[in-house]
Design a protein that fits this description.
single chain; 214 residues; alpha/beta; Rossmann fold; 7 strands; 20% strand; globular; binds 5-O-phosphono-beta-D-ribofuranosylamine
């Protein structure tokens, strides 16, 4: 079974993944490249994360995630924030899209917009995010650059429940990544992403298993 969250700093992956009554229905929100989407999809394909990706919502036309979603055979819906008068109006349409695809877990994977209570309240405690730092250190933009500027020896990534303040909310899983003296933002980011791809599917399973047994 999954270990408890506190034992999962630089975690090993579960040897037995939880099964749910029905596969989890995930809605993935992405703004950019989509490598975490792909990692989650592959975990599902391998029979690890017991889930289905119901829809991918993206906000930037031409983002890399569009091509990945197409290759993975996943429906992708563009909701371009530039066409909305407010964050709440955008989130309203995101919620409607997620509900229309029977989503119950919202997975932010490189979603580069602040979200509002409209989204968070519609999926209470079931909105997750991944951030490329060991939160609460280095929230916000350019987290890897922030870590290098602070000359930390250990960087990493965090999967957490989403609350209103940016990059805040209960931590579900973290992985630590040692910083090398020669690291640039690109080299450190690349090693952090390897860990992101490992822990995000496991963190979704852990969050869902804890939620259902709570
Ligand atoms: C990741 O580094 C994640 O931590 C941050 O945005 C990046 C998304 O990468 N929130 P990708 O689009 O999944 O490749």
């Amino acid at each position: 079974m999954l270990e408890t969250a506190s034992a999962l700093i630089s975690p090993s992956l579960p040897t037995v993944w939880p099964r749910f009554e029905q596969p989890l229905r995930l809605g993935v929100m992405a703004s950019g490249n989509g490598s975490n989407l792909e990692a989650i999809a592959h975990s599902i394909e391998r029979g690890e994360l017991h889930a289905q990706i119901g829809v991918v919502v993206y906000n930037n036309p031409g983002a890399g995630v569009v091509e990945r979603a197409a290759r993975l055979g996943l429906p992708a819906v563009l909701l371009n924030h530039r066409h909305y008068p407010s964050r709440e109006a955008l989130d309203h349409d995101i919620v409607q899209t997620l509900l229309a695809h029977n989503v119950d877990w919202v997975i932010m994977a490189g979603w580069m917009r602040c979200v509002t209570a409209v989204l968070i309240d519609a999926f209470a405690n079931q909105v997750l995010n991944i951030h490329p730092s060991l939160l609460p250190s280095f929230p916000g933009l350019r987290a890897v650059e922030q870590a290098l500027a602070a000359a930390v020896k250990v960087a990493g990534c965090t999967v957490h429940q989403v609350e209103l303040a940016v990059d805040s909310g209960p931590v579900i899983m973290q992985a630590a990544v040692p910083v090398e003296p020669t690291d640039t933002p690109a080299t450190l980011q690349a090693r952090i992403q390897v860990q992101e791809h490992r822990i995000y599917p496991a963190a979704i399973a852990l969050a869902a298993a804890s939620h259902l047994s709570a």
